[in-house]
Amino acid sequence: MANFTAADVKKLRELTGAGMMDCKKALDEAEGNLEKAVEIVRVKGLKGVAKRESRTTENGAVVSSIAADNTSGVIVELKCETDFVAKGEKFIAVAEALAAHVAKSAPADIEALLGSEIEAGKTVQAFIDEANATLGEKIVVDRFAAFAGGYVSAYMHRTAADLPPQVGVLVELDKENAEVAKDVAQHIAAFAPKFLSRDAIPADVVENERRVAEATAREEGKPEAALPKIVEGRVTGFFKEQVLLDQPFAKDNKKTVQKILDEAGVTLKRFARIRVGA
Asked: What number of CA atoms fall less than 13 Å from residue 236's CA on the CB side?
């Protein structure tokens, strides 16, 4: 192991703007020689990574990786600074590599993902740092969803023809039904429900909606005797907006999503929706 200190790593970061792990590797390769380490960083194109850390990432893509038998699948959001980079082949390749890695390694959370090895001797964090350097923009992965156990499917939605998918939806049914899985996933992409069922809503959230509904009705001067019915009506409206199973189905608004699932004889076990930057 080369002889260098934390202060040396800090100094190299200040001189080059490269990431911490890249600085450590460069110093190790340079056997602690700072000048040589600077040269190594420059040769490998890692300069400027750390300096991009404060930039905002509002563009990017959502990509998916679904098992051939649909027993598992993932969606991953990879963000960048500009739409120009987002629609580039190199950026999409990085995103797809991350999705494949998540599908294979099943990390518990983002921290575990970043610390896992995507290649021999290379962590996901180092892999992303390299993408930062290569693409010249801040690249961030901070959300993913992974399902396994039932029938898993994904729907990817493009908000513009020249951009990669900006919205990704992952659904898991209790049994195979490709058509229903696709239809429900498309519905979720369009209507952005926050909860699967009423039971999934925290009690304090429902209670707060009741308080707001009552306070609003009183402010509007509604009769005291009519308040209970008005409050319940507005809370029901909240459920129709936020609860997937209560929402009118996109392709037939005379039926709820629950009704569509019941008619198909399937149960939606869970879903995840990711929109870039949202």
From this structure: 7
Alpha-carbon gap, residue 169 to 4, rounded angstroms: 47
Cα dihedral angle (133, 138, 141, 142), rounded to 10 degrees? 150
Please enumerate in sequence order all residues whose Cβ is within 8 A of that of 105, keeping only pairs 6 or more positions apart, or say none: 113, 116
Read off the pTM. Answer: 0.77
Question: Would you give the distance in Å from CA 89 to the centre of its chain?
Answer: 20
Query: Pick from 186, 143, 153, 158: which is nearest to 57 by CA?
Result: 143
Distance from C-alpha of 164 to C-alpha of 93, rounded to nearest angstrom = 12
DSSP structure class, residue 195? B
Q: Say which residue, 46 or 118, is predicted with more confidence.
A: 118
Q: 30-55: per-residue pLDDT in tens? A: 888 888 888 787 666 555 555 555 45
Q: How far apart are the first and last CA of the chain?
A: 44
C-alpha span between 151 and 149 (Å, rounded): 7
Select from 183, 188, 153 the least CA-distant residue to 171.
Answer: 153
* CA-to-CA dists, residue 102 to 63, 108, 277, angstroms: 11, 10, 20
Between 137 and 91, residue with greater pLDDT: 91
**Maximum CA extent, the chain:** 82
What is the C-alpha separation between 245 and 224, in angstroms, rounded?
Answer: 32
The confidence score (pLDDT) of residue 48 equals 54
The 10 Å Cβ neighbour count of residue 182 is: 15
Token couple for 230:
């008005």
Tokens representing 162? Answer: 């020249």
How far is the C-alpha of 16 from the C-alpha of 229, rounded, in Å? 66
